[in-house]
Amino acid sequence: MLTVRARALLDGRLAPSVSDVAALAQAVLVHRMALSFAARARGETLSAIISRVTTRVLGLGAAA
Q1: Is 7 helix (H, G, I), strand (E, B) or coil?
Q2: CA–CA separation, 47 vs 31, rounded Å?
Q3: What number of CA atoms fall less than 13 Å from residue 35's CA on the CB side?
Q4: What is the Cα Rg of the chain in Å?
Q5: pTM
Q6: How far apart are CA 49 and CA 29, in angstroms?
Q7: pLDDT tens across 2-60, in order?
Q8: Contact at 8 Å (CB) between 8 and 20?
Q9: Given CA atoms 6, 8, 10, 13 in this order, what sign does their dihedral have?
Q10: Cα(24)–Cα(32) distance, rounded to whole angstroms?
């Protein structure tokens, strides 16, 4: 959360936005998550999962 706030301040805003969270999600989450065996067997990657989630959160993807 501090990183998101800092990004907003560097951009001249007092409050962070969802786009700030999405911009930093990859860097923050990739080392905090682990794939299950089933996900690895399907060929999933952490980067792809994080990208899919941030796209849906921003409302750019279809709700599935």
Answers
A1: helix
A2: 10
A3: 15
A4: 14
A5: 0.70
A6: 10
A7: 999 999 999 999 999 988 988 999 999 998 999 999 999 999 999 999 999 888 888 76
A8: yes
A9: negative
A10: 13
